[in-house]
Structure formats: C-alpha cells, structure tokens
Amino acid sequence: MNALWNAITKLYGEHGASQTGLTLIEYNPDEKLAVIRTNNTALNMTRASIATITKIEEKPVAIHVLAISGTIKALYKNLRH
Amino acid sequence: MKRQYADLHLTTNIRDSQQVSVIINKAAQLGYNLIALLFLPNTTQEELKQIQTACKEAKLDLATRIDLKPRTPNDLIFNLRKFRRRFEIIAVLCESKNVARQAAKDHRVDLISFPSTDFRQRFFDMAEAELASASQASLEIDTRPLLMLEGPARARLLASLRKEVAIAKGFKVPIIMSSGTSNELLMRKPQEQAVLAQLFDLDREYALDAVSRNPTAIVTRNRQKLSPKFIAPGIRLVKKGKDC
C-alpha cells in the first residue's frame, strides 16, 4: 500500500491522493493478489498510479489490474470467471 | 465489435530467443492481439520465421518494424528507399528539425517520434502536424519514459506531451501509444496504457484508439501496400491472364 500511496502522491500530489479514498481490503501473498477500494471518481487516478509502479523496496515489479467492480461480491464473481 | 489491441514498439533484441519468447508470452497474457518487434536491417528469413512461429503459438499477429535515426533528410530518404519494401512499419526518431519535417511529409514514414528526455528536440509543432496529417504519418508516444522518469523530468515530459497531443488532435494526426521497452516488467495492459494517456489529456475513446484502431490501421494499410496485388491506393490486381 505504501508503494501505491507513494505513486499517487508523486503523480497527483497530496491533494490528489486525498481524493482517492484508498483502502486495502485484502491481500493474499500466495496468489500475489490485492483487493483495493477507491472512490469511483478517482478510479482513473488510481489506475494510472498503479501502472506507474515499477519498484517496491528497490525490487522491480509490475502491478496489473485484473478486475474492477462496484461491489466486493461482484468483484470476486468477476475474478472467478 | 471487440477491440483488437496492438503494441507496435517492443525493443527486445530479436537475436536473444529466450527474451523474445518472454516478451511474446507477456504480450499475449496482457491481452494484445498484434505486436511489432524491432528488427535489424540484416535480419535473416530464418530468424523472422522463428519469431513468427513463436507468435503464432501465442496467438499473436507479428508485424516487422525498423527504427530509423537519420542525421539528415537525405539520409532518411536513402534509408526509406532501402527499407520501405522490407518492413511493415517504419518509424523515424527525429533528432533535428530538418529530419522531422522530411519524416512528416514523406508518405513512406508510418510513425514519427521524438527523444523523451531532451525537450528541445521535440519538434512536433503545428507545421509538423500539418505535414504529418497530409502524409498519414502518426505520432508515436512510448509509455516507458512515463514509467521510468520521476519528479520534474516526468512533469516536463507530461507538459510537452499535453501540448503535442492537443496539436495532433487539432490536425487529426493519429496517435499511437506503445511500450517502447525490452523489459517485460515495463509492459502494461492496453487499458492501462490508455489510462496513462489520460495523464496528458487524451480522452478515453481517443486513448483506446491509440492502442487499438490506429496501430491496427497502419499495419493493415501497409500489408495491403506490400502485397504483390497492390497497384495504387484503391486499385489492386484481382485477376491476371488472357481472359480478363
């Protein structure tokens, strides 16, 4: 989450970051899968920030969005399909 | 109709078969349908066939691309004459204004791009856009520098891109978004590329076209032109023989 907050702050500043309402809902280290909640109005900001993450603690990484949904129930349904 | 996504700028060394395979599989996994790898002028038919087979296995369409970095307009004309019929995509990295103008007005050039870190060498102004619009050349924007740069350098690049995109839209110059990378960790999904394009005020539909419709149109057009049946734009050989 720190990497995501840093990316958002770098790209949009603290004012922009405050509009995203970011929350980590779940993180599964085995599957390397995270569920993140963000405000609907800040969705593009969050997606762009996720795309700009290239390193976490000096290790090269790439993070991709697998699915987006309005509810957590529908999100898990999308992921299962 | 479902969009067909394309990444026309993957710069991996085509002689490193392991890396090529990694890049091809990653592109397929990210949802691309068409990719263009950077070929060398001395690429053999065997090397090309090998890569084409790997792409076919990954259910990807492969386009051949060469990047030209000419010093003078004459140098560019010479290289275009030499390579145009051998490669499906010709991109020109413009490092001087004269080269940029020649590249924009020459209909054999598909993509024009500019150095991402030296902002004095970005020559995409209204005159350039007008020439590019008439010759059907497209403006290529790589996402790699957007991911690699930070702080003031990225802010300056975004400001330049915002200005260039506004000019390109005004003159109806197609914009192409590409990865421009040889590292699979710097490749992004087409939708993610489109979201990154929104950082320089490219609206959603236009940004999605920059990773789907625009690059696909270039490859389709050039394949038709390179076909032996092609005579002139709009004219092609349908039948040959005495009974015609």
Question: Could you characterize what this model shows?
Answer:
- The complex is a heterodimer of chains A (81) and B (244).
- Chain A is of the alpha+beta class.
- Chain A has a single domain, classed as Ribonuclease P, Pop5 subunit (Alpha-Beta Plaits).
- In chain A, 43% of the residues lie in helices and 19% in strands.
- The radius of gyration of chain A is 13 Å and the shape is globular.
- By secondary structure, chain B is an alpha/beta fold.
- Chain B has one domain: TIM Barrel.
- Chain B is 46% helix and 16% strand.
- Chain B has ten helices and nine strands.
- The longest helix of chain B is centred in the middle third of the chain and has 20 residues, at 151-170.
- Chain B is globular.
- Chain B starts with 5 loop residues before the first strand and ends in an 8-residue tail after the last strand.
- Classes of the chains: A alpha+beta (81), B alpha/beta (244).
- Chains A and B meet through helix 2 of A and helix 6 and helix 8 of B.
Radius of gyration of chain A: 13 Å
Question: Could you tell me how far the N terminus lies from the C terminus of chain A, measured between alpha carbons in angstroms?
Answer: 26 Å
Please, how many domains of chain B? 1
CATH architecture of chain A: 2-Layer Sandwich
Question: Major beta sheet of chain B, specifics?
Answer: 7 strands, parallel
**Average pLDDT metric of chain A:** 91
Per CATH, what is the topology of chain A?
Answer: Alpha-Beta Plaits
Number of domains of chain A: 1
List keywords for this structure.
heterodimer; A: alpha+beta; Alpha-Beta Plaits; two-stranded antiparallel sheet; 19% strand; B: 244 residues; alpha/beta; TIM Barrel; two-stranded antiparallel ribbon; 10 helices; 9 strands
Give the gist of this structure:
Chain A is of the alpha+beta class and 81 residues long. Helices cover 43% and strands 19% of the residues of chain A. Chain B has 244 residues and is an alpha/beta fold.
